[in-house]
C-alpha cells in the first residue's frame, strides 16, 4: 500500500508566511490543516503496521541481519545473518549462501524443504532439537558444525552407507544411533548406537 502522507505534506507551503508582507490568515490555516492531516495519516499507517506485523513475517522473502522471534516465521526464502528462535521456522528454502560466521540457535524446530548452506558460508549451527529437511546441502567445501539431521532408516551396521553424514541420528522407541563421521569407504565405523541394552 502506497503511503498517503505525501498527499498532505506536499501541499504545505514552506515559503509561507512571506517576510515583510501582510499575509492572509487563510495561508496559516491551510498549512496547519495540511500538517494536522499529515500527522493523522502517519499515525494511521504506524498503527496499521503495529496491528499487522505478523503478516510482515510471512512475506515471500525475509531478508535481515537479525531475526529474533518467540513465535513463528513463515517464508518462501529466509536469508539472514543470525536467526534466534524459540518457536518454529517453516520455509521452502533456508538459504545461507551469502552468510559468513552466522549462527542459528533454535530451541524449537526448523522445517524446510531445503536447508542450503553453500558458497561463502562458514557457519556454526546450534540446535537443541532438530532441522527437518528433504535436502540438507553444504557446498564448496564449507561446513556446518553441530548440525543434527534425522536419518530416514537406521544403519545396517556401524559402517553405514554413502547417504550417511556426520551429525545424523536415528531414533525410535527402542534404539538410538548417532553418526560421528561422514561415510568414507564402507570399512571404517561411522555410527555408534544402542538397541535395548546391546550396543554396536
Description:
The chain has 200 residues and is an alpha/beta fold. It has 2 domains: 47 residues, no CATH class; 140 residues, no CATH class. It is built from 3 helices and 13 strands, in the order αααβββββββββββββ. The strands form 2 sheets. Strands 1, 2, 3, 4, 5, 6, 7 and 8 form an 8-stranded parallel β-sheet that branches. The protein has a 5-stranded mixed β-sheet with strand order 9-10-11-12-13, with no helix packed on it. It is rod-shaped. The protein starts with a helix and ends with a strand. About 2% of the residues have low confidence.
Q: Which structural traits does this protein have?
A:
single chain; 200 residues; alpha/beta; 2 domains; five-stranded mixed beta sheet; 3 helices; 13 strands
Stretches where pLDDT is under 50 for at least 5 consecutive residues are: 97-101
The secondary-structure element order is HHHEEEEEEEEEEEEE
Overall strand count: 13
Shape: rod-shaped
Cα distance, first to last residue? 62 Å
How many independent structural domains?
Answer: 2
Helix content: 10-25%
Structural class of the secondary elements?
Answer: alpha/beta
Our count of helices gives: 3
Give the strand content.
Answer: 35-45%
Q: What's the alpha carbon Rg, rounded to whole Å?
A: 28 Å
Average pLDDT over all residues = 73
Q: How would you sum up the major sheet? A: 8 strands, parallel
Amino acid at each position: 500500500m502506497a503511503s498517503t502522507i505525501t498527499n498532505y505534506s506536499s501541499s504545505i507551503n514552506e515559503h509561507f508566511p512571506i517576510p515583510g508582507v501582510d499575509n492572509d490568515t487563510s495561508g496559516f490555516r491551510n498549512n496547519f490543516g495540511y500538517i494536522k492531516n499529515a500527522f493523522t495519516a502517519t499515525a494511521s499507517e504506524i498503527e496499521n503496521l503495529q496491528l499487522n506485523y505478523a503478516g510482515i513475517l510471512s512475506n515471500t522473502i525475509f531478508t535481515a541481519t537479525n531475526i529474533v522471534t518467540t513465535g513463528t516465521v513463515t517464508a518462501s526464502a529466509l536469508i539472514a545473518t543470525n536467526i534466534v528462535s524459540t518457536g518454529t521456522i517453516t520455509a521452502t528454502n533456508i538459504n545461507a549462501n551469502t552468510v559468513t560466521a552466522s549462527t542459528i540457535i533454535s530451541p524449537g524446530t526448523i522445517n524446510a524443504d531445503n536447508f542450503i548452506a553453500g558458497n561463502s558460508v562458514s557457519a556454526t549451527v546450534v540446535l537443541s532439537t532438530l532441522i527437518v529437511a528433504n535436502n540438507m546441502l553444504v557446498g564448496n567445501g564449507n561446513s556446518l558444525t553441530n548440525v543434527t539431521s534425522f536419518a530416514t532408516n537406521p544403519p545396517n551396521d556401524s559402517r553405514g552407507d554413502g547417504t550417511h553424514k556426520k551429525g545424523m541420528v536415528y531414533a525410535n522407541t527402542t534404539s538410538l544411533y548417532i553418526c560421528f563421521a561422514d561415510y568414507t569407504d564402507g570399512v571404517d565405523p561411522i555410527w555408534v548406537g544402542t538397541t535395548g541394552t546391546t550396543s554396536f
